[in-house]
Amino acid sequence: MKPRDYTQILAELRSAYAARAPKSAALNERAQRVQVDGGSHALRLMQPFPPRIAAASGAWVTDEDGHRILDFWQGHLANILGHNPEVVTTALSQAFADGSGLQTGFTERYQVEVAELLCERTGAERVRFTTSGTLSTMYAILLARAFTGRDEVLKVGGGWHGAQPWALKGIGFHREQGYQHIETAGLPPAVCEEVVVMRFNDPQMLRDHFRKYGDRIACFIVEPFMGAGGYMPATRDYLQTARELATQYGAVLIFDEVIAGFRFRAGNTGALYGVQPDLATFGKIIGGGMPVAAVTGRADIMNLAGRPGGSRVKFSGGTYSGHPASMLASRTMLRYLVEHEAEIYPRLAALGDRIRRLLEDVFAQEGFYARCTGWGNDALPGSSIFMLHFPYQEGHPLDAPDDVFNPAVCDVTLNGDVLQLALLLEDVHMMHAHGAASTAHTETDLDFLEVACRNVARRLKQL
Ligand SMILES: Cc1ncc(COP(=O)(O)O)c(C=O)c1O
Questions:
Q1: pLDDT tens digit string along 179-190?
Q2: How many angstroms separate the alpha carbon of residue 230 from the centre of ligand 1?
Q3: pLDDT by residue (tens digit) across 427-445?
Q4: pTM here?
């Protein structure tokens, strides 16, 4: 395939989309008057406007205009059991009916129970809760810097750990700079220098960097399964090398499992690699649909945030941290996943396999060379996650973020804005050609997806 100009195609898709969604359009107009860009999470603010969701259940959402849309974004990958799963809504309804659930400003038993579950299922010794994955990675890095007394933070290019100071370098791919650039105005210059960007799945680059600068490195933060950076698992060698180097040089290894945690098993993903990090961060799935995140890890590091350690790390506030309804949802979700682990994860992997195959095959049959990332590997037996790409050259490896987000390698407009809009016109929602199966998706849903993809491919050929 060759690079293509999508200006006209996008204009046609946008106009068809706008024509079918007047209520979402009207809400968007109101939103534009009072919210920056009309909403609070940039990823969700597509052009010409996002569908405004009125109801969500299982695999499907319904927008304000009454379209039932098959959803693979699933709560920004939080909803592993689908939207509003009964097991969680029943527990919450019961609590509200009993007159509990909203903020108390005390600590309830749920917190203890969720922390116990997290320790059991992730090998952590201590847990502290917060309300977003972003805060959890910020606190984990703060802990690592305090523990080591060092400044340098290693992350990988394409790695998204939320918008916090030490994570705002090397997220989006730039044609000239690759991942060696700062993502925001307003950062203290020292922070920009302290963050060093490595290439994902490149153990040699890590070795070289540690050999030269090992005594400066506070931590290496990495996702065992790369999320926003392209939906690709770390290789076993990469994580094992990271573990060995961090131990050898006294740096803290942080696994950001905000996406990966409880996605591939009822516990941490590091365990599938046989690699225990010093700290790990969790979010999304563990909240059961509520805003819960956690930093977990070694007691000697985590205790720096505690009173006996002298509160050296001010990871101690958060009005809504450990919120009762959130913790109840979390406990319910984690218990459910643990109890049903043997059925849930193989089923999710099978759905993921079918989706990835289906996407590649349908587009290939219609003349588009398409490849998915999101497959498992020798450590990660199966995966419910997928991202579709359109590489220009057949056989190009898609092992790292710079492979899939480099516009010279893959058609990033096609799998970005174009596909998202074209699929919505077929009542299917993915975020820029990526998403995940939930247990609520059925084979019939995937048949629906297949027809939708075929229609999209044919439409794009004609435009
Ligand atoms: C790997 C990873 N870490 C951290 C975050 C930030 O989490 P939150 O959006 O809950 O702040 C995200 C969000 O998508 C993520 O994917």
A1: 999 999 999 988
A2: 14
A3: 999 999 999 999 999 999 9
A4: 0.97
61-81 tens-digit pLDDT: 999 999 999 999 999 999 999
Of the candidate CATH numbers 3.80.10.10, 3.90.1200.10, 3.90.1150.10, 3.10.50.40, the domain formed by 7-72+342-462 belongs to: 3.90.1150.10
pLDDT for residue 463: 78
Residue 46, helix vs strand vs coil: coil
Mutate to test the pocket of ligand 1, among 171, 258, 387 (most ligand atoms within 8 A of CB): 258
Please, which residues have CB within 8 angstroms of residue 438's CB and are 6 or more apart in sequence?
A: 58, 59, 74, 79, 80, 81, 82, 348, 384
Instruction: Please work out, in degrees rounded to the nearest 5, the angle formed at the alpha carbon of residue 124 by the alpha carbons of 123 and 125.
Output: 120
Q: What is the dihedral of CA 212, 215, 219, 225, to 10 degrees?
A: 30
CA 76 / ligand 1 centre spacing (Å): 9
CA of 262 from ligand 1 middle (Å) equals: 14
Is the separation of the CB atoms in 133 and 258 below 8 Å?
A: yes
Q: Is 172 exposed, middle or buried (0-12, 13-18, 19+ CB in 10 A)?
A: middle
Dihedral angle sign, alpha carbons of residues 199, 204, 209, 210: positive
Task: List, by residue range, all CATH 3.40.640.10 domains of the chain.
Answer: 86-339
